[in-house]
Structures are given as C-alpha cells and as structure tokens.
Design goal:
369 residues; alpha/beta; Rossmann fold; 2 domains; six-stranded parallel β-sheet; globular
Length: 369
C-alpha cells in the first residue's frame, strides 16, 4: 500500500523533530540547573586525610569566609576525599569538572594533577594549595615566570626548606652519618624533595638510604629496611603517601630507637623529634582568600602563581620527649628551642607564637634534576 502524503511528511520530519525536542529539553534542563544554583558552587578535593591536608582545607574554608563566601549562605561548598586512591581522585575530578561546579579548591599535589587533567578545557576555576612544587607537577606552569599559567589554574606552592632542615639535624646530632627515607617516586612533589635531600646530604657528608614505595601499605616495611641498613634517623619528605602513615613510621622507628624528622609539620606531639615547614592552615588561608577574590571577579590572568615562603616564614616544632630516643645522642640546643613555635616537653605542649626560625633557607643546586 502506498503511504499517504501525510505519513511521508511525518517520516521525513521525525528526525528533525526529535533533534529539536532534544535540544529544547537540554536548554530547559540547563536553565533549570542554573535556576537551582542561585549561589556559586565550590568543590574542595583532598587526596587523603592527614594533619597537613586537613589543615589546608580548614584554612581554605576560613579564607573564603573572610571574603564573604560562607557555605549555605553565599556559596554552596561540597568536600571530597580521594582516600589516597589515585583512580578515585581522577573519577572525582571528572565529576567536579563535569558542569556542576563553578570553582574547585585542591589540597595536595595528586589532587592538583587529577583536577588539572580533567579540567584541561578550563570549565572550572581551579585554586590549589598544599603543593610543594607546582612547577614540577606537569600542569602547564613556568618556574621562570609565575604569570605564565592556564587562565583557570592558580594557587600557592609551599616548598619547605630541605637543606635548612638537614642543617638543623646536624645541630641536633653533629655525628649523624646515615639517614633513611621512604618515598613514592610517582609523586612529583616527592621527587622534588628527594632531589633536594640528595643534594643536601652530599654537601653535608651524610649517606641517604632510600627506599621507594608504591603505596602506603609498603611504607613501614621500607622504613624498617633502611633501619636494617644502618639508618640512624628517618626523614619524611613532602610525600603524601608516606605522610599519610606518619604515626606508623614514628612507632616502628621508636621501637628501634631511631628518631624521625620531617618537612611536613602535623600534630607536634605525634612523636617526631622535630619538624620544619609551614603552618598549613595559614597556607590554606592564602588559597581561600585568593579563591574569594576570584569569585568576586578578580581577573585570573593578572594573578601569578604564589610562593608560600614569600608570605609565611617556615616554622619549627620540637619534641623533647620523642619516644625511643637516646637523649645523650639526640640533643636539641637551647637556641633551637627558642626558635620553635611549639615545644613538647615533660610538661606537655608549650606554644611560643613570637618565635622565628632563622635561615638561611636557600637550597643548594640539586645537580641531578
């Protein structure tokens, strides 16, 4: 049977009608989503829960609030935690950059990298913090010119002074000869710290005993391996994998009578002998204030990548009762105690807010970068 002219017209017109209906539905959904989002939506992603990364997030939220951007009032904030899983971080990053958020703040180098990869088209403004060396993270930054960066990507680097930290180690124990360090070479921040640690140890006549790890479950065994090789003290670099199990490292080292020192300050009473680095709540504050300015309309293209050390001096914390340590071998001089922001002793915690750690903080050439 020959189809009627009406049926022929409908068959020819159906694909166009479907396409137009779909486009209309998409526009309607977009309009409805925009109507529902009467406030800017901000995501916050951290790689794992550690004292450093948690403090940075706390500071970010406080910095936003200082600028008038308060959750549930002037902005909607949703927090994400990748639980130390890079695949999960990548999945969260894709969700964040898929259209539901106007801005994302990240805490840690892996979180920076995950979001930067998912956000190559710049659909979301991205502000980062708690990143040791963003210029080596492979996200399009230029160490020679901090104004060169993707327009949507801004933040602060927070590279702790590694050589100065080893200098403090030698003041605590001038005879130290072997330092153990577990690290995850897949982390660009960790690679940078270890480059600087190698250079510092070479210049100071210290043997650095390294043990590479792939994930947090292998850290304690790696630390034990360096102790078996003669490590007299354990160094924890700016490494998210290792820092996430810092308490376990301190416990296993203490059982062997080996102290631990770090460039990732956390809880001063966790058992590390001393820590040199930044107050990461203050680091987060810098990023949160910047994020607030951007939400207020500041042009990202005019903002350079920041260096925390230019705005916040590094700080020292010392623990005079760190567990499992020979007090005759590991003695913190009085002049260092006077420079510590926090001192842990037999009486508990003592804060010294006016204390300032003196430099120099310049790093020697790494040589093997």
């Amino acid at each position: 049977m020959t189809p009627s002219p009406l049926m022929s017209f409908l068959r020819r017109s159906l694909p166009t009608a479907v396409l137009l209906a779909g486009a209309s539905a998409l526009l309607l959904a977009t309009d409805q989503a925009g109507a529902r989002r009467s406030r800017p939506a901000v995501a916050v992603l951290k790689q794992v829960s550690t004292a450093v990364l948690d403090d940075a997030v706390t500071g970010m939220l406080e910095g936003l609030a200082e600028k008038g951007w308060r959750d549930g009032d002037t902005v909607t904030i949703r927090q994400f935690n990748a639980e130390g899983d890079m695949a999960q971080a990548n999945a969260i990053a894709r969700e964040i950059t898929g259209g539901g958020f106007d801005m994302v703040l990240t805490s840690s180098t892996p979180s920076l990298q995950a979001v930067a990869t998912a956000n190559e088209r710049g659909r979301v403004i991205h502000v980062f913090a708690a990143v040791a060396d963003p210029f080596s993270a492979g996200v399009g930054l230029d160490r020679a010119d901090p104004l060169i960066h993707p327009r949507h990507l801004l933040g602060y680097g927070s590279l702790a002074p590694v050589d100065a930290t080893f200098g403090i180690l030698q003041r605590v124990n001038p005879r130290v000869a072997k330092v153990g360090a577990a690290h995850n070479p897949s982390e660009s921040n960790s690679r940078r710290f270890m480059e600087l640690a190698r250079a510092s140890c070479r210049g100071r006549g210290i043997e650095l005993l390294e043990a590479a790890v792939e994930n947090s479950s292998g850290v304690v065994e790696a630390v034990q391996a360096t102790i078996a090789r003669g490590a007299e003290v354990i160094f924890i670099p700016g490494d998210t994998t290792v820092a996430s199990v810092c308490d376990s490292v301190v416990n296993v080292a203490a059982k062997a009578g080996v102290p631990v020192f770090t460039v990732v300050p956390g809880k001063p009473d966790r058992g590390t002998l001393f820590d040199v680095g930044f107050d990461f709540r203050e680091v987060g504050l810098l990023a949160g204030r910047l994020a607030g300015d951007l939400l207020d309309g500041r042009d990202p293209a005019t903002v350079p990548i920041g260096e925390t050390a230019r705005e916040i001096p590094p700080r020292l914390t010392v623990n005079l009762v760190a567990p499992g340590i020979d007090r005759q071998t590991w003695r913190i001089p009085e002049e260092l105690i006077a420079q510590a922001k926090v001192v842990i002793d037999s009486g508990g915690r003592r804060d010294q807010p006016e204390a300032v750690l003196t430099g120099p903080f310049d790093e020697p050439p790494a040589g093997d970068r």
